[in-house]
Design goal:
heterodimer, A: alpha/beta, Rossmann fold, Alpha-Beta Plaits, 2 domains, six-stranded mixed beta sheet, 14 strands, 34% helix, elongated, B: mainly alpha, MetI-like fold, 0% strand, transport (chain B), membrane (chain B), transmembrane (chain B), MetI-like_sf (chain B)
């Protein structure tokens, strides 16, 4: 199957500054892709290229085979109607009501007003804004505004939904509800979503694939599960997103030594990308080997519908039997070092 | 106050209102397109023609730099060409409009500039043409500011129309100079001032009300 969107060797130059260098990746129909990077990594430039608001200096951006880079402006106007865009700061028109904001893309596409009304009603239901149709955007909360933004982006039944830091201006609770809405839209409509963000947490909870941008280059392009569970890949992006990896608590880290010494306990990192839930791993370990286990950090989290185990534990002994037991139960067992038992 | 003076003041008020609103209307008709043109040509994502924007800005500022009393005199030949005479209320509308167009253009441009660039992006990203950006985003979003700017322009025109009285335009300014100043008729002078205050305050109140409703 040919991908819905294919980015080939896209580079963009602002004067003599390279915002994007040789960016290539593709997005399959129905996928949820997270594009993550720190500010200045080229995310915004890439987004403006993807929604055809800006032409990169080099490369091709193929949406269903049509190249957004080489098309003339007249044709681009039509292509843009097939791409929905959700903004960080909502960008709603305060001169219009909620319903009229959602109807705007339909008006622009020349859809008659009777069909517009029916479609707006549908969209209001999809995003759960019944009763707010005649309000002004300024009368809504941030989360509600973003729902209007999403409804507006969906109005013309786009083949691709681009979200530009769509949750960055929202509080954590509202972020979760907006992400849930987007996930539901992806599931119900099979709509392909690209989410541009600087928050690893958003990618972890929502995306299936992730593209990591750094200094305008793609440094990682893989399924989220792989990225978050493979320690070698983890190191690749750990310096970008230190919160991605769980850390040894700092009070323990101060006493950490690489080799065992008398009266020392071992720190282990246990990892598994397909952990079974509920997990009795730690209690089995304690019962079978009579060991006191201290959980220092981590646990099991859901990423892209899978249970990812990542935890750091402390054990008084690390016998070959324990090692064998853990190796059988977890994909990765890593010795992080040793700390004095009285700390 | 005698009946005669009251009638003089009344007629002069009508003349002033005629001058102010006629030239105000022309200021919007001429100034708003200029403001839009100045803004959209200055923006790279709309009609990337910065040279045109700069040229317009320069012409507009040059016109605004000329003191109105001097513009009145300078424009007498133009006024004769357009209105057929340099005297009277209709004739005064010509220099008043020519002064008000660049004045309003600058004020309107400021309001248009304040429209969030994100809204321009939004309309463009929906597949709107550049004309749709002007129609759906720039003008409606700037409307409260455009109305407030018109209010300021009208109030300025009330003052300018009084100055036009100095070269025989009629209206309240003319009345105040001929009766109030040259004939030392304090009653006329004070009534004219009182009427001007009422006119200005009414325009301001009406403008505020419309702008508030739009917000």
């Amino acid at each position: 199957m040919t991908p819905l969107l294919e980015i080939r060797n896209v580079s963009h130059q602002f004067g003599d500054h390279s915002a994007l260098t040789n960016v290539s990746f593709s997005v399959e129909q129905g996928d949820i892709l997270g594009i993550i990077g720190r500010s200045g990594a080229g995310k915004s430039t890439l987004l403006r290229c993807l929604c055809a608001l800006q032409k990169p200096t080099e490369g091709e951006i193929l949406l269903n085979g049509a190249d957004l880079v080489s098309l003339p402006e007249r044709a681009l106007v039509l292509e843009r109607r097939r791409i929905g865009l959700v903004f960080q700061h909502f960008n709603l028109l305060n001169s219009r009501t909620v319903a009229a904001n959602i109807a705007l893309p339909l008006e622009i596409s020349g859809i008659p007003s009777s069909r517009r009304r029916a479609r707006v009603k549908e969209l209001i239901e999809i995003v759960g804004l019944e009763g707010h149709e005649n309000k002004r955007p300024s009368q809504l909360s941030g989360g509600q505004k973003q729902r209007v933004g999403i409804a507006r982006a969906l109005a013309t039944e786009p083949v691709l939904l681009l979200c530009d830091e769509a949750t960055s201006a929202l509080d954590p609770e509202t972020t979760a509800s907006v992400l849930d809405l987007l996930a539901e839209i992806n599931r119900r409509l099979g709509l392909t979503i690209i989410l541009i963000t600087h928050e690893m947490d958003v990618v972890r909870r929502f995306a299936r694939r992730v593209v990591v941008l750094e200094h305008g280059k793609v440094v990682e392009n893989s399924p989220v599960v792989t990225l978050l569970s493979d320690p070698s890949r983890n190191e690749n992006i750990a310096h970008l997103f230190p919160d991605t990896l769980i850390q040894i608590p700092s009070d323990q880290k101060a006493y950490l030594q690489t080799d065992p010494f008398p009266a020392s306990e071992v720190l282990l990192r246990l990892g598994d990308t397909a952990a079974s839930l509920p997990s009795a791993l730690l209690s089995e370990l304690g019962r079978n080997f009579g060991a006191d286990i201290r959980l220092l950090n981590g646990g099991i989290t859901q990423v892209g519908g899978r249970n990812i185990m990542d935890m750091i534990i402390r054990l008084p002994v690390f016998s070959p039997e324990i090692q064998m037991f853990l190796k059988n139960r977890c994909q990765t067992v890593e010795v992080l070092g040793y700390v004095p038992s009285d700390r | 106050m005698s009946h005669l003076i009251a009638e003089l003041v009344f007629r002069a008020t009508l003349e002033t209102l005629e001058m102010v609103f006629a030239s105000g209307a022309i200021a919007v008709l001429g100034g708003l397109p200029l403001a839009v043109l100045m803004l959209v040509t200055s923006r790279r994502d709309l009609f990337d023609m910065v040279w045109l924007s700069r040229l317009l800005g320069t012409v507009i500022d040059a016109l605004r730099a000329v003191p109105f009393i001097i513009l009145l005199v300078l424009l007498i030949p133009v006024t004769r060409l357009i209105a057929g005479t340099a005297l009277g209320t209709a004739a005064a509308i010509v220099p008043l409009s020519i002064a008000a167009i660049p004045y309003y253009a600058r004020i309107a441009e400021v309001s248009l500039k304040e429209v969030d660039a994100g809204l321009v992006d939004a309309v463009r990203a929906m597949g709107g043409t550049r004309w749709m950006v002007i129609r759906y985003a720039l003008i409606p979003e700037a409307l409260p500011g455009l109305i407030a700017g018109l209010t300021v322009t009208l109030v300025t025109l009330v003052g300018a129309s009084a100055m036009a009285g100095a070269i025989g335009a009629g209206g309240l300014g003319d009345l105040a100079i001929r009766y109030g100043y040259q004939r030392f008729n304090t009653t006329v002078m004070l009534s004219v001032v009182a009427v001007l205050v009422v006119v200005v305050m009414s325009i301001q109140a009406a403008g505020n009300m419309v702008a508030r409703r739009l917000r």
